[in-house]
Specification:
single chain, about 250 residues, alpha/beta
Length: about 250
């Protein structure tokens, strides 16, 4: 019998914290809009079968289901899946690791892995995502950018790495994907991210401030991130605190 895949270093306590902020926090708001735009651009606006790998609190999976997609939410930790079963029973839920998916080949038209790969064996997860996508299927991933931004936030979240664009592209290509596009997210707030990460190398103080900004600040940053997400199709932002990538499973 094969050994169980390694458990992600993402704790139930951290997930509980994210459950409290995922719906309204400026960073999540912008990321949701960015990914929805990428889905519409590369997978089309018609209802499709989508795998949300590492679905966390499940709010994005729920919004995709509200847009009539057939959504399967998969996570290693149960809290978000329990919430989905209660609030969005139309979303199929699976509790599993990402490196060994209990899913048949060619099962999905698209898959998303939003800030997941940095927690796990990214090459094994990318191979599994390639396997469960149909030929021509689209993969959308986001990951934290730039190793020099490593801070207490990464340690507390159980990150194993931060990425450069070329590194992420190489990981996806090695799993058999063809790259469609990649870019940065949070360009305008990047100077602030540098400041908070460098000052928060070994302390939780700046992480906690980022998690719970004052409401007017959160609202302003949410507008900035949403406008940036909408413009990302037309403007190749030269940097940002996150990287997004779109890749396609070839025949």
């Amino acid at each position: 019998m094969a050994p169980d895949p390694p458990r992600p270093d993402f704790t139930a306590d951290r997930l509980a914290r994210l459950l409290g902020i995922e719906r309204y926090h400026f960073w999540f708001q912008g990321r949701r809009l960015l990914v929805r735009c990428l889905i519409n651009r590369f997978a089309g606006s018609r209802p499709i079968r989508i795998l949300d790998l590492g679905s966390g609190g499940g709010f994005f999976a729920q919004s995709l289901a509200a847009a009539r997609h057939q959504v399967t939410a998969l996570d290693f930790l149960p809290a978000g899946l329990v919430r989905l079963r209660r609030d969005a029973p139309e979303v199929k839920t699976i509790q599993s690791s990402a490196e060994c998916l209990p899913i048949g080949a060619c099962s999905f038209d698209a898959a998303i892995a939003l800030d997941v790969l940095e927690h796990i064996d990214d090459q094994a997860a990318a191979r599994e995502l390639h396997r469960v996508l149909r030929p021509g299927g689209v993969l959308i991933v986001t990951v934290p950018a730039f190793p020099f931004l490593w801070s207490f936030r990464d340690v507390s979240a159980g990150h194993k790495r931060r990425y450069r664009r070329a590194q992420l592209a190489a990981t996806l290509r090695s799993a058999g994907f063809q790259m469609e596009t990649s870019g940065y997210y949070q360009f305008f707030l990047f100077p602030l991210a540098i400041l908070t990460r460098l000052s928060g190398r070994s302390s939780s103080t700046t992480r906690d401030l980022e998690d719970t900004p004052p409401r007017p600040v959160n609202s302003l940053f949410a507008v900035i991130n949403r406008l940036e997400a909408l413009a990302s199709r037309y403007i190749p932002w030269p940097w940002g605190s996150s990287i997004y990538a779109v890749a396609r499973r070839t025949e």
